[in-house]
Amino acid sequence: MPDAEITVLLEAVLDDVRAGTPPWDTTTRERVAVRLRAVAREDHCSLEDLERARRDALTRAPTAM
User: Fold this and answer.
1) What dihedral angle (degrees, nearest 10) is formed by the CA atoms of 21, 39, 57, 29?
2) What angle do CA 23, 25, 46 make, to 5 degrees?
3) pTM for this one?
């Protein structure tokens, strides 16, 4: 998928995340962004893949680093 398409998809998913999380919850927003970046770097990336990554990042508890 061309970079421009992925960018548009990422922006749409991130808009949903921003709308659904308080501005001060940067931990959640960062966790989702990291997961979305990982998925976007894969060879085959679709809106469904990004949405699944968003849901996973929002529902799974963060792990200690």
Assistant:
1) -30
2) 85
3) 0.73
E-strand spans in the chain?
Answer: none
Our count of domains for the chain comes to 1
Q: Tell me, yes or no, whether 65 lies in a domain.
A: no
Is a pLDDT exceeding 90 seen at residue 24? yes
Q: Which two tokens stand for residue 62?
A: 């963060």
Which whole-number Å values give the CA distances from 13 to 31, 36, 48, 63, 65, in the listed order?
13, 9, 10, 23, 25
pLDDT, tens only, 25-56: 999 888 898 898 898 888 778 888 888 888 88
Report yes or no on 40 lying in a domain: yes
